[in-house]
């Protein structure tokens, strides 16, 4: 289901705003962490499953990013983080996202620009939007690349994400990955452009996907810390993993 935004995408891009994207985002549930899925998991998980009683809060700004309103951010004093659903923190509380953990570990403001379902292209475009908005050089940048097979398409007031969850024969995802060379070449170029954009900034690129990390010459996170996918939806990194990732990032930035 599409949750249409109120934005004119062309005007957003021209203005330097970050790209708007809405995928089932509510105060207590978001993206794949739906209430229906949660109720289903309650029937299969053990009695001591922590998410039975542990709440998950999603706090967004007006553009549906899990960070403060843009006008309240001191960009030059902050670490900026890009990525997909694991960076956004699907299935974990506001205090347990990678960005919140890193902010607690370092004492430095951390801005979470992760969006569930996004692609490398979407993240690269938001990096370009950062510069188009004439924002100052941040204190550091970290990107957790989504899987490179994903792609997005732009419509008048909507950005459609394509991945394994909506793959269909003859669809955009199918065409984009018909020969895996295509998505691999695009991944190399996306990562290369990001490296150029942030060449004067402390910059780290990583991925939770081994093939994407290899193609983009990024850090495969599981080589530097143990990763458990025990968020509330049982599909994304959980609180302990997010803290380990944050501690590792702190040693690099």
Write the layout of secondary structure elements.
Layout: H1 9-15, H2 35-42, E1 79-83, H3 85-88, H4 98-106, E2 110-114, H5 120-132, E3 140-145, E4 151-155, E5 158-162, H6 172-176, H7 180-197, E6 203-207, H8 210-216, E7 219-220, H9 239-252
Parallel strand pairs: 1-2, 1-3, 3-6, 6-7
Antiparallel strand pairs: 4-5
Helix pairs in contact: 4-9, 5-7
Q: Helix/strand-derived class?
A: alpha/beta
Report the major sheet.
5 strands, parallel
The tally of helices reads: 9
Distance between the termini: 39 Å
Shape: globular
Any idea what the radius of gyration is? 17 Å
Q: If strands are numbered along the chain, what order do they take across the biggest sheet?
A: 2-1-3-6-7
Elements, N to C (H/E): HHEHHEHEEEHHEHEH
Low-pLDDT segments: none
Mean pLDDT: 94
Helix content: 25-40%
How would you describe this protein?
It is a single chain. The protein has 253 residues and is an alpha/beta fold. Helix content is 34%, strand content 13%. It has helices spanning 9-15, 35-42, 85-88, 98-106, 120-132, 172-176, 180-197, 210-216, 239-252; strands at 79-83, 110-114, 140-145, 151-155, 158-162, 203-207, 219-220. It has a five-stranded parallel sheet, with helices on both faces. Strands 4-5 form a two-stranded antiparallel sheet. Helix 4 (98-106) crosses helix 9 (239-252) and helix 5 packs parallel to helix 7 (180-197). The relative contact order is 0.16. The mean pLDDT is 94.
């Amino acid at each position: 289901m599409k949750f249409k935004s109120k934005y004119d995408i062309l005007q957003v891009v021209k203005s330097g705003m970050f790209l708007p994207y809405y995928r089932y985002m509510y105060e207590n549930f978001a993206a794949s962490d739906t209430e229906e899925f949660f109720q289903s998991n309650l029937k299969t998980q053990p009695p001591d499953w922590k998410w039975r009683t542990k709440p998950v809060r999603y706090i967004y700004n007006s553009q549906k990013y899990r960070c403060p309103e843009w006008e309240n951010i001191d960009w030059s004093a902050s670490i900026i983080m890009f990525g997909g659903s694991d960076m956004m923190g699907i299935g974990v509380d506001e205090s347990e996202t990678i960005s919140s953990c890193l902010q607690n570990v370092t004492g430095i403001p951390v801005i979470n620009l992760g969006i569930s379902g996004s692609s490398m292209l979407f993240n690269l475009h938001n990096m370009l939007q950062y510069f188009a908005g004439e924002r100052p050089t941040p204190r550091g940048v970290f990107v957790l690349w989504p899987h490179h097979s994903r792609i997005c398409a732009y419509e008048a007031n909507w950005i459609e994400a394509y991945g394994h969850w909506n793959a269909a024969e003859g669809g955009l995802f199918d065409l984009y990955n018909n020969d895996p060379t295509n998505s691999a070449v695009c991944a190399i170029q996306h990562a290369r452009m990001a490296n150029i954009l942030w060449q004067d900034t402390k910059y780290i690129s990583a991925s939770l996907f081994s093939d994407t990390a290899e193609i983009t010459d990024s850090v495969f996170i599981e080589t530097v810390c143990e990763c458990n996918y025990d968020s509330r939806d049982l599909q994304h990194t959980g609180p302990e993993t997010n803290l380990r990732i944050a501690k590792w990032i702190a040693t690099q930035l």
